[in-house]
Amino acid sequence: MSDDRLARIRKMIEQVDPSRKADGLKETLESSCGMGAGPTLDSHSPGSGGELEYQIAVESLDVLDRGDQLDSQHQFALEAIVMPFYRPVVDIVDNHMTVNQLTSKWKHLGEEENRTRIEQKLLSIGRLEIPGHPSLPYAGTGFVVGQRRDGRSILMTNRHVAEIFSTGIGDNNLDFVAGQRVDVDFLQEFGRIKKDSLKVERVVMIHPFWDMALLEVRGLSPQRQPLTLRTDPPEQFAENEVVVVGYPGYDPEPDVVYQQTQARIFRSVYYVKRLQPGVLKTRDEVPSYGRTVPAITHDCSTLGGNSGSAVINVKSGDVIALHFAGAYLRANYAIPIHDLAQDQRVLDQDLNFQGPSADPEQGLYDEYWRLLKTEGSSKAGHSHGLGRMAQTPSSTSIQSGSTNQPKAVSSTKKPQAAHKVAAFTFSVPLCITVDFGDTTFPSATYSTDVTHHVSEADTDLTEREGLFGREELPLGEALNLFSLDSLSTTGFDWEASLSLAVCSKLAYATASIVEAAVTGTMGFDDGEFVDENETQCFIGSTTDFTLVSFRGTESLRDWLADLNVRSIQHDYGRVHRGFFGAFEDAREQLEEKIRDSGNRSLVLTGHSLGGALATVAAAEWHDMFDIRSVYTYGQPAVVKRGFRDFFKSYLGDILIRFVNDDDIVTRVPPTYVHVGLLKHLDANGNLRPATESFGAQPPTMSEREFDLLRAELLRQRINERSLGSSSTESLGAPATEGLFPSISDHSIDNYISKIRDQK
């Protein structure tokens, strides 16, 4: 372990546990052992449990206190066991805290007086979503801070969150990015799919100094009242207990202990409303938008997605700061409400300020507003001098709580523009890319066995936190849509459709991620990833049924280009030779595992090629196992026409086949037909009527159309290889869209989104 990291761990432990006694830690570990608390010491010691974890945690505290060298086991104990005890994360479900997730140090938050005070505030905090954004499903957190006489309500969030969907800076000439819609959803809770959304109608302000923005909505429910913004100097609240409420997202930081710590604290659940308790600390000068700002620090457990969260004083229930960034094992940073209240333009926005009167006559921020008039509030973006300034090398390190006491914003000292920057570790959630320019399917870009050290290269706290990957639906958020109980149903069910679409998405992840999710977030008793000769799937078992979810193809373009039309004869009819061969690769291992699980009812699912494998499996296993249901998404046709009679006779209506609008994969290969009950969703997500349950709607391509498609894809492959990796020419989907059925319609995220909207 580096000396710097050891020093940061030591300092953080000193802050949260000066006595080094860890009072209550043993009881908390014993009560949480085996209850899905996240990674344990299994990878470090055999026979791990609450007692063992407690012993190692206490030993680690002793080693730290003596100043001795910490080994990897001690480091894990301090970061992944002790820190979650002192700074836990609590699920919000039905607008209530999940009290049994509070560690003994924080049990008092569950007492009626504290609980009632805090839960009243939860109603007014929501997630900012961007349904039309091509790559970001949502941007961060926002909360209600004011109400105008005409009924319009004001939300507060971070400037770097608002910049994702808006243009301009200041309080004039602000606009949304062309074609962009923004909503605020006040629910998005763990285990819940219900929404309570309002459209954001206007961007009111992008502050020129602070990382703060104001948004406007209409039609807010009376129960969602503006939170009180307390204007007292934050120094008065130093060492007070606070809670941060927001929507923390997965951070793919490639440090093993960090990943274990993150999974432990957040229980491998992300992108839903959480409450994170901690303590307010001192001022610290930190870089933001090319200048140094006097932020207030706190030590709650936060991740990206908490950007724009309210920092709430436990004693009063008032908001005392706006969270905007974090640095692992250093501190989290927030904007004091006191400082915002020094700006007359902010005071003029009908916000719910309470406390000592501000003194805007000092004109602390006039210089920055004057610069706006000089440079103009550009509607083209945020790239001018008041936006993200050129970054200097990150050689200067800011030490939180250094001996040089940070200066508070006051009537005698104005905020100072500067170019001082620092090295930070950021909270950036999971990034899964669906790149249709290269026609590649979703694959997780993170790994749990990476041993790279903690990255500290970022120089601006607003550059990364709050950005949410480059896919439409991050895996962590998708897993929150899964309901294990829904898979016990027979016959068609929308909730089961959504849950199995999520399973089909998960099948694209790495084996370690799949297995952790299956027995963790998803709640299966057992789970295992199967990888046999390029056929991958996973199994999840309960006392009631066994799930098999097949993975689809990783490279759509290459798969389509190489697809043939050869078939093979079986007793029940002719099936595609390639699909049958892929199933056969994993068949023996799957059948062994299914029998080991107790020959329970089977639920089969898959997306793309995975759907074809699920269909073949259903046919092959129809007289071996009790098949409860089969759900497929964007699957190719699998069988010749004679197979359809067999399927109707032996498998009835248990196969549900989803098609998204003009999905190209459902139109191949030629001369083959589909089976199953068709659920065809159009471009707007509406369910199209099917004229025949087992009809081949939409029909597969003709052989000539298929030959043209393959010729085009092969041409692109040759061009790509000849152009080399330096070429910027867009290959793949963009060249075929409009000429052939849609490649982009094939995304599993599109299926999940449209099915979710049906519920």
Low-confidence runs of at least 5 consecutive residues: 28-49, 377-471, 691-696, 722-740
Number of helices: 20
Strand content: 15-25%
Alpha-beta classification: alpha+beta
Radius of gyration: 28 Å
Largest sheet: 8 strands, mixed
CATH arch. level architecture of the largest domain: Beta Barrel
What is the quaternary state of this protein?
A: single chain
CATH topology of the largest domain: Thrombin, subunit H
Q: Name the helicity range.
A: 25-40%
Question: What is the class of the largest domain in the CATH system?
Answer: Mainly Beta
Inertia-based shape: globular
**Biggest sheet, strands in spatial order?**
21-22-23-26-27-28-29-30
Number of strands: 30
| First-residue to last-residue Cα separation | 49 Å
Calculate the mean pLDDT score and round it: 75
